[in-house]
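Appendix C reproduces, verbatim, an entry submitted by the partner laboratory led by Prof. M.T., so that reviewers can inspect both the input and the predicted structure.
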Amino acid sequence: MYKAGQGMPSRMGALIVGFLVAGYAGLSWFGWLRPISPASRFDAYVNPAFIGALILLLGVVAVSGWLVFRSAKAADYLVDMDDELRKVVWPAVMPLFDPKTEAWGSTYVVIVCSILFTVFIWVTDLLLQLLVTRGLFQSLLFAE
């Protein structure tokens, strides 16, 4: 079916994301139920809320592992994704901090477009604010 190691970077990445999501979900749920204070840290580990969070964490990890390594559809998707990522032409970044590389050129374009878009939204917001407070809708909205 697959060659040895085929799709392994994508599978391991998906498994790591599953671990991170499970860890965040378990810790958030436990923190929401009972915040840990330094004085009662030992009591917190025998708390039923902590045990429930640990079971939730292990369940999400088990489901993530099964999806990544045993589910045929998920494995096909991850192998195909890995094959497609190998076809991507990534921008040149070497030598680092050289303004002539493709990555720095793209970075400059993103920064300039972000600044222009921010200024556009700010000016539009000011104009709409003036229009609403002092312009056409003043008599309708702020009737005295």
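The mean pLDDT is 76. Additional entries are available on request from the coordinating office.
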